[in-house]
Amino acid sequence: MKIIHDLKNPLIAINMCIEESGIQNDIICDIKNEIHEMNEMLDTLKTEFKSRNSMKFDEKTADYKTHDLLKSFKMSFTKLALNGKNNVEFYIQQNFPEYLSIKPTILKRIVNNLISNSLKHTYNGNVKISFLKN
């Protein structure tokens, strides 16, 4: 668990420097979003360590607006996609629920892995993610 704490320290320092600089632009906003995503990944890793060590930890399910989730996913991956001259597109089936009752770190990890792997193996193309109601 100490390593997770050690990994979070530079993120805290970077975030503090950004806040103290008072600079606000698209690049700073992107950096802050990535810091947030990295902190969430470290929290997920911490959860995994706890569960493997027989410590009970159950992330609570919460309701999230589907369009807000997709907007945050798109923001996270647009810059990465553009580096490979790719485009990331999200589609929602018309009858897809407006709200999802989910465990957020699990969904984010699934979508993160899906998109990251797709972008690693795509150059100058489109990555399309569809949300369909089963």
Structure commentary:
By secondary structure, the protein is of the alpha+beta class. It folds into two domains: 1-58; 59-134, Heat Shock Protein 90 (2-Layer Sandwich). It has four helices and four strands. The protein has helices spanning 2-21, 26-52, 66-83, 104-120; strands spanning 62-65, 87-92, 99-102, 126-131. The chain is globular and about 40 Å long. The relative contact order is 0.14.
Mean pLDDT over the full residue set = 80
* Spans where pLDDT lies below 50 across 5 or more residues: none
What name does CATH use for the topology of the largest domain?
Heat Shock Protein 90
Give a short account of the largest sheet.
2 strands, antiparallel
CATH superfamily (homologous) name of the largest domain: Histidine kinase-like ATPase, C-terminal domain
Estimate the strand proportion. 5-15%
Concise structural overview:
By secondary structure, the protein is an alpha+beta fold.
Observed structural traits:
alpha+beta; Heat Shock Protein 90; two-stranded antiparallel ribbon; 4 helices; globular
Topology overview:
Layout: H1 2-21, H2 26-52, E1 62-65, H3 66-83, E2 87-92, E3 99-102, H4 104-120, E4 126-131
Parallel strand pairs: 2-4
Antiparallel strand pairs: 1-3
Helix pairs in contact: 1-2, 3-4
